[in-house]
Amino acid sequence: MTDKLAVNITVVCWNRLEATKRLLNSIEKFPSGYPFELTLINNGSTDGTLDFFKSDLPDFVTRIIHIPENVGIAKAYNLGWRLGCKEYYMKLDNDMTFLKVGWLKHLIEMVKGIPKVGAVAYNVEPNNYPVKKFGGITAQVKQGNLGGCTMLLPKDTWDKLGYWYEGFGLYGGVDGEYGNRILYAGLLNCYSTDKSMVRHFSTAEENECLIMAEKVCIQYGLVRKGAFEKRKKEYVTRLKVSSGGNCEHQILRSRV
Fold first, then answer.
1. How far apart are CA 132 and CA 138, in angstroms?
2. Domains and CATH numbers, the chain
3. CA angle 130, 136, 137 (to 5 degrees)
4. Which of 61, 63, 81, 149 is most buried per CB count within 10 Å?
């Protein structure tokens, strides 16, 4: 697939092999409704993920990359972003599964129909947010960062804000930092109002990681605490601090 308007979907996998299989099965079962290129990245897994990636995977898997050691989620996702630059980029976590046809088309329609949108995603949080109509599109507009499990960004957002911030190391408030960067740039973070499209198979351990990431965001001033204008300039100018996923890697498949 060489359609420049296709979505570059990147899935970074550090273990959780069964979750990865479940996600791929759901992509095969429920057509996306919009062209995409799928990049799978093995980020130093030790549970058989690499052997699985070397097996006969579906044709919709466009690119397979092996990173020998875990370099962290930001750097790994940045690598997939850089190698498959398109008009749209989707950060898709491997513990998601799709439940309905048209899951990608729906997000693309949101991006195209919402003025000044920075990112869209499916809401897998327990909370709902104020619903706003944009012509024929309805969305939950969040005055904070979106969860990054299914986050879709138009290239315009990347042109303004750049890659995920790699300064947290292996883990940390990656989604939170980028989401706040979007707000500081005067753009919108919007969730879909359709909660029946996806399911998030989070674990208790992962929920603890989310809590820890929130604490990291607060520690580094990445969560808005009444200091919006003060921090706006600082985080908008972070677009140049990433290496763009520069790390040792091996391309196992490339059908571009």
1. 6
2. 7-239 (3.90.550.10)
3. 40
4. 81
